[in-house]
Amino acid sequence: MNAAWRSEDAARAAIVDAARRTIALGINTGRSGNVSMRWHRGGADGLLITPSALAYEAMTIDDLVWLPVDAPPGEDDGAEQPLRRDGSRQPSSEWRLHRDLYAARSDAGAIVHAHPPFATTLACLPRIHVEGIPAFHYMVAVAGGNDIRCAPYATFGTAALSAAARAALEGRRACLLAQHGLVALSGTLEAALELAVEVESLARIYGQALQLGEPALLDTAAMASVHARFSRYRPDR
């Protein structure tokens, strides 16, 4: 996976670029959010992730941190930092979320976690906690299902948040995080970033629709047709 990157330095450069683009695209501000890519070293499955509390404008490829994906059970229980890592900086506070998703999802080649305004606004509403973003628009299918779930609230950087996100992402490629933001994963970095932006756009439109009334929802048959078409026209989604 991520064989398109011929060297680790090239992969690191792509991650830094993607992190900066989250600011330009309006899905992050300041130092919020984090970006990672699955990256093998030799026979070890691992990931490269943006560091903690460093402005993206100041970030260089040397600031990224490599972590192994396969940590022994209980190795990092309760730890704020992974016991095994390679890098001069501390990884993002959400390293556990990224690592656990890669361990659970063989289809995940890259992950974008962001705090975009519209998705985060919806993720603060009790209705969204229960219903997520329903099939008010056919593009909801881009996240992998007939809705976009919202994971229940848990403190950032904790195993509880990681578990909640993994559950919300079962059979999905993106989810909201209650009182927090969103997570998007895909096979490539570009696709994960594109998905995060698409979910934010859907959140904006859904929020606007709710201000005007109760949106009509597409039924299961209509969404099944969309998924079938996506499988032919958007195989990289």
Describe the protein's architecture and organization:
- It is a single chain.
- This protein has one domain (8-233): Class II aldolase/adducin N-terminal domain (L-fuculose-1-phosphate Aldolase).
- Helix 2 packs across helix 5.
- The two termini are 15 Å apart.
- The protein is globular, with a radius of gyration of 17 Å.
- It has a seven-stranded mixed β-sheet with strand order 3-2-1-4-7-6-5, with helices on both faces.
- Strand 5 (150-151), helix 5 and strand 6 (174-177) form a beta-alpha-beta unit.
- It has helices at 8-24, 95-104, 117-122, 126-131, 159-168, 189-212, 220-233, and strands spanning 34-38, 46-49, 65-68, 110-114, 150-151, 174-177, 181-186.
- With 237 residues, it is α+β, with helices and mostly antiparallel strands.
Instruction: Tell me, rounded to a whole number, the average pLDDT.
Output: 94
- The count of strands amounts to 7
Instruction: Enumerate the spans where pLDDT stays under 50 for 5 or more consecutive residues.
Output: none
| Overall geometric form | globular
What fraction of the residues are assigned to beta strands by DSSP? 5-15%
Order of helices and strands: HEEEHEHHEHEEHH
Helicity, as a percent range? 25-40%
How much is the radius of gyration in Å? 17 Å
| Straight-line distance between termini | 15 Å
Strand order of the largest sheet: 3-2-1-4-7-6-5
Question: Going by CATH, what is the homologous superfamily?
Answer: Class II aldolase/adducin N-terminal domain
CATH class type = Alpha Beta
Give the biggest sheet.
7 strands, mixed
**What is the SS-derived class?**
alpha+beta
The number of distinct structural domains comes to 1
Total count of helical runs of at least 4 residues: 7
CATH architecture: 3-Layer(aba) Sandwich
